[in-house]
What does this fold into?
Amino acid sequence: MNILHYSLGLPPFRTGGMTKFCVDLMEAQLHRGGTVSLLWPGRIVGRKTRIKKRATQNNINCYEIVNPCPVPYDEGITEFGPFLNDGDIEVYIHYLSLVKPDIIHIHTFIGLHASLVYAAKQLNIRTIYSTHDFFPICARLTMFRGSKPCKTVETCNECPACNAGALSMTKMKILQSPLYERYKDAVILKKLRAKHRDQALSGTPVKLVHVTTEPSDYLALRSHYSKILHNISYIHFNSTLTQSTYEQYFGKLPGEVIPITHSEISDNRKRHKYREGEVNLLYMGQVSASKGFYLLKDALDKLNCYSIRFRLHIFVNSHVDLPYAINHGRYSYEQLSTIMEKADAVIVPSLLSETFGYTALEAMSYAVPVILSSTIGAKDIVPKGGCILFESGNLNSLINSLDSLSAEKLSSMNKVLLDNFHVPLMRDEEEQIRLRCYL
It folds into this structure.
């Protein structure tokens, strides 16, 4: 089978869960004997769209779209013309006629010309879309505003203010340039990105000078993406939460739910011993309001007010100063075994909707109990009794969930994960997608 993937690119330039899944799926498909290509949005120079062959990497045929739609990251959109540009369909028809894919697997709409989908339909090539993000619904990807979930997603009433800090076209061109790709990991650029990310995640509203857009602009953009969605052959929803969210805004879509995994996941489950006393609680997300960190802090402040009952281990670069918290820094997959060995439970308290959530999967692959917000897509794969689910954003619900933890309950959850949790491997994922989406 000849499979063409569309995503944002390859590591180390592109990172994150979507990139990880795409690369791991491509490698699994190559292992099965398929022909695999990757197409991504590249530099913006001039106006004419063309597709440039890049060096083959690890047997993956690589292609760059020169002059694609811009890549706004999660900063928002204020200039709509470049995003509403369908692209030159003749360029894509010519490209697809040369590559001759049996399947086109799209992993994001970011940077995507609609003409890729329309050309595929004209050539009778099956297209698949995996829902790794909410970009077709929300220009900021998260449906989160300030420090709370956005309540005006339907009408886009708050979009002009929320997107006011969007990158300019000039900045997006720089971030899509070969020069930036080359020097992305320079120390000064890393520091600037970290500072910007800390400010973005703080939950502090953007200081506005002048709002230049209207809600109707964002509704028109959503309508543009709706048209693309309804021309895609089949949707791979990575969770029931994602499916219900997409169908809330775009109506019924052809597709089904297939939970995701990645190549570092293996069956490392074992029985853990629990003792009454301090509970070692692991937090592996960003220190931000959207990821639920401050909600978790408020809950632990109350529960630890007289004595430390919960010890919070933070595995992300952080300078949080709390008497019950230990900052370990960012973790790598190679450290997971050591980390999970000392964990009593892993908590994922996000306020925003997570299309899936690899952290929960990683914990359960070690049979470590998880405490999940109700807006985590990975809750689909947890066997009954294997986790505690609390109402997203509800402080009392989180406090009660944590307060219910005991050595006996943790031991019971661990046993459920040992007896009833099927650890999803990447080779099985590849087979499920091939049989259920591609054929």
